[in-house]
Design brief:
The chain has 199 residues and is an alpha+beta fold. Helices cover 37% and strands 19% of the residues. The strands form three sheets. A four-stranded antiparallel beta sheet has the order 1-2-3-4. A two-stranded antiparallel sheet has the order 5-6. Helix 7 (168-175) packs across helix 8 (179-187). The radius of gyration is 26 Å and the shape is elongated. The chain starts with 6 loop residues before the first strand and ends with a helix.
Length: 199
């Protein structure tokens, strides 16, 4: 299929390139002044319509549109996204690696995240998940003071029962129940003994 001289989006085909795969590959001139190569299928299907300048322009607009690239709320969104979706992140094993997810709307859009959680009341506030083993969603996230977030972690809260004092995490592991089950019992006003023994 001869595409010489044809236009696809911002690209105009200028010549055919040699290809070891047997597929037709075309050299293209972009309206922005750049060049690129693309296969017949990528051009005719609309998959490739520029030399990536459109993607760069879109990214630049997204970074500048909200004007919050250097803000705490933007850094929070970016850190959550990396922890949940990037296997190369140093803490991925504690989040995405163990099934902690991020709302797909938030992954795709910082503005959606901002609309759902709002600005942090102060610089001392951080995002906290109400249920520590559940993902980052609108219903499960809120801003809390850092000290409150630390106290809410199942690795820090202790319960004393049957002559022993252990963290909620260790009790949950021993009893074979989720940590949030023990938290829920405690929030209903149960004593530590009742929380651990289930009555």
């Amino acid at each position: 299929k001869d595409l010489m001289g044809q236009r696809f989006g911002r690209l105009q085909v200028t010549r055919r390139e040699e290809s070891r795969t047997g597929r037709s590959v075309w050299q293209c001139q972009c309206d922005c002044g750049g060049t690129c190569t693309a296969t017949t299928t990528d051009l005719t299907s609309g998959k490739t319509t520029s030399c990536k300048c459109i993607k760069s322009e879109t990214a630049a607009r997204n970074f500048t549109r909200h004007g919050k690239r250097n803000s705490k709320v933007y850094r929070t969104w970016s850190n959550i996204k990396q922890r949940c979706t990037n296997p190369r992140h140093v803490h991925y094993h504690r989040y995405g690696g163990r099934g902690i997810t991020m709302d797909p709307r938030w992954i795709a859009s910082f503005e959606a995240f901002l609309a759902d959680v709002g600005e942090p009341p102060t610089n001392d506030h951080t995002i906290d998940r109400k249920e520590n083993d559940t993902g980052y969603t609108k219903d499960n996230c809120h801003w809390v003071l850092n000290t409150a977030q630390q106290n809410n972690k199942s690795t820090n809260v202790t319960l004393t029962a049957n002559g022993r004092t252990l963290t909620v995490t260790l009790w949950a592991r021993e009893l074979g129940v989720p940590p949030q089950t023990l938290f829920a019992r405690k929030q209903r006003g149960w004593t530590d003994h009742q929380v651990i023994n289930g009555k």
